[in-house]
Write a structure and sequence with these properties.
heterodimer, A: alpha+beta, Arc Repressor Mutant, subunit A, Glutaredoxin, 2 domains, five-stranded mixed β-sheet, 5 strands, 45% helix, B: alpha/beta, Ubiquitin-like (UB roll), de novo design (two linked rop proteins), 3 domains, 11% strand, globular
């Protein structure tokens, strides 16, 4: 299977490339664009990123494996992230995390068989004053309790 | 009380409203002066960095070389991953143009042509809001190549947003630069400091988002005005993010040097159920925690908190009531640092793991009093022995939590004392040894 960037994404990469004096610096933006198109970063995707930017594949690999927001395996359609760090924990985040685990039948970094949900226990998301919180894909949901979380999960189709 | 960073003006994040309230006036004022005068002004204002180290912003700027053939850079740190800290997102949301204006002024003062605003990857929404504001500033020709005509001056600068990807360590300045360069976020050995060799080996200044947002107000009202706000040695207002067991958590802007008890009881509405406070972490999870019965008279500025045995950090106050299990809190903090350690330095990479494992053992009920000493010993061996401050940040909570709440932690461990065979090689070392007490 061969991965190619769409024309639109190629121009987005070109725009990102212009922000920096070196091509290597655009790698983080490019990986984001690739992840958006492909869902996750596979071996082929890394090769294509290296090709497009004219850098070594090992540079792409080293960045992909360092940062937690890049996924090397397919994630669910809805990537549910539950923060359990101190402020959230004080406000009952583990209760929520356990509830979500049970409801989805998933553990940390697992994907449901129908690829609809994946679950991640994340570190502080910067919503300490609005704890507890979960994030679904890119959206934050704050000031939650177990019932509200279940409502959110039920509304995801 | 006047708010500097988050003024209480509705729709202040709209450019029209911002302009109507004196927006981008400071930039015009700045261009009538020389960069050295600006640096001097900020230095005299006493503005200290809001990112954790509380270092004088003006002094930091003055480290930038005056004559160099290399390009200079400004990095604005909006990585904000410290547990308990959630202030920068309020600035992105409510006051983006003051941040942009501050960035232009800073670029002019240090002679940078390009500024990078590093925002953590999880802040998708706030990155979009900030990008929109930057685009608007470009469209109105306040920034970019066209600002030369707008202000009639031979100076221009660009502001780009760099999106992080979920690494706490990238809030450390040298690792932030590596991240912008497209490398793994490994901190660099200092010296050379960023002002000598920063981004791509060029002179670079790194400031926190909140620090930069203060700059336009200092230029507008003068350094004397600013230096009179709050505590004399740490002037200005601070964004306090208060979370945990309080009735009204949130971000509040107040002059530095306010009473911690005032902040908790009057501003944040006290503790739910009128419970007593067991522990407060005053500056984000890396800072030493304070005992709830020793909060009287503690003031929220760098000097006072240092005296009280903690530090201002990022102003993220975490309050824990009397029913909190501090062992679980410490275990969670240790797990965080173990997860976020970049793995370059052995003491931090191994030590954070061992601290978590030892705490886990205590949590499972297999711990002894000696494990507490062991934890302090491991923490002492991390502190100061690593490239960046993450080592210290991981060591301090463990060390100070156990020392200051020893009575509480003794409840979770067995009282059995094993008499160890003293290891001569180990006991000769200067670091605190778990055996030290036995020799007394």
């Amino acid at each position: 299977m061969c991965f190619k960037f769409t024309e639109e994404n190629l121009s987005r990469i070109e725009a990102a490339r212009k922000k920096y004096p070196t091509a290597l610096a655009a790698v983080m933006d490019t990986i984001y664009i690739a992840q958006e198109q492909n869902g996750y970063i596979s071996n082929e995707v890394m090769e294509e990123i290296a090709n497009v930017l004219g850098i070594d594949k090992v540079n792409v690999l080293s960045v992909v494996t360092f940062y937690t927001m890049y996924h090397t395996k397919p994630m669910g359609k809805y990537h549910v992230q539950v923060c359990t760090n101190v402020s959230c924990m004080l406000c009952g985040a583990y209760e929520i995390f356990d509830g979500v685990k049970e409801k989805l039948g998933l553990d940390h970094m697992q994907v449901s068989p129908d690829s609809k949900f994946s679950l991640e226990e994340v570190e502080c998301m910067g919503a300490c004053g609005y704890a507890p919180m979960i994030a679904v894909n890119e959206d934050y949901f704050e000031n939650l309790n177990k019932e509200k979380v279940f409502e959110i999960l039920d509304s995801l189709k | 009380m006047e708010k500097i960073v988050l003024p209480e003006i509705p729709d202040f994040n709209q450019i029209e409203i911002y302009l109507a309230n004196g927006g981008f006036e400071s930039v015009k004022k700045v261009f009538t002066k020389t960069p050295d005068e600006i640096i001097d002004e900020v230095k005299k204002s006493g503005l200290r960095g809001r990112g954790g180290a509380a270092f004088s912003a003006g002094l930091k700027w003055s480290f930038m070389p005056k004559t160099t053939d290399k390009p200079k850079y400004l990095c604005i740190n909006g990585d904000e991953s410290e547990p308990g800290s959630f202030k920068d997102r309020q600035i992105f949301e409510d006051n983006p143009f003051q941040l942009i204006e501050g960035a232009i002024i800073t670029c002019y003062a240090i002679g940078a042509k390009v500024a990078y605003l590093y925002i953590r990857g999880e802040y998708h929404k706030w990155i979009k809001l900030m990008q929109k504001a930057v685009d608007e500033a470009y469209a109105r020709e306040f920034i970019g190549e066209k600002m030369k005509e707008t202000y009639g001056i031979d100076f221009s600068c660009d502001l780009f947003i760099h999106k992080g990807a979920g690494a706490y360590i990238c809030g450390e300045e040298s690792s932030l630069m590596n991240s912008i360069e497209g490398l793994r976020g490994y901190p660099r050995v200092k010296p050379p400091f960023p002002a000598q060799r920063g981004l791509w080996g060029c002179p670079t200044t790194i400031n926190n988002v909140e620090t930069i947002t203060n700059i336009p107000a200092i230029i507008k009202n003068g350094w004397e005005w600013f230096s009179k706000i709050g505590a004399p040695k740490h002037p200005g207002t601070i964004l306090f993010g208060i979370s945990g067991h309080v009735n009204k958590p949130g971000v509040y802007e107040f002059p530095s040097g306010m009473l911690l008890t005032d902040l908790i009881y009057n501003v944040a509405g006290g503790v739910p159920g009128n419970k007593k406070i067991k522990c407060v972490i005053p500056g984000g999870s890396s800072m030493p925690p304070l005992r709830g019965d020793q909060l009287e008279g503690v003031r929220m500025d760098a000097e006072s908190l240092k005296e009280a045995g903690s530090a201002i950090g990022t102003g993220g106050v975490m309050v824990m009531d009397e029913d909190t299990n501090l062992l679980k809190v410490l275990l969670r903090i240790s797990h965080f640092y173990h997860h976020e350690s970049c793995g370059q330095c052995t003491p931090c990479r191994e030590g954070t793991g061992w601290m978590e494992k030892t705490l886990h053992r205590i949590d499972e009920g297999h711990g002894t009093s000696q494990d507490l000493d062991l934890l302090i010993s491991v923490a002492n061996n991390i502190e100061g022995n690593t490239i960046c401050a993450l080592g210290d940040a991981a060591a301090w909570p463990v060390k100070f939590m156990i020392t200051r709440f020893r009575d509480e932690f003794e409840k979770y461990v067995k009282k059995d004392i094993f008499i160890p065979v003293p290891n001569k090689v180990h006991s000769m070392r200067e670091t605190a040894s778990p055996l030290a007490d036995l020799h007394k």
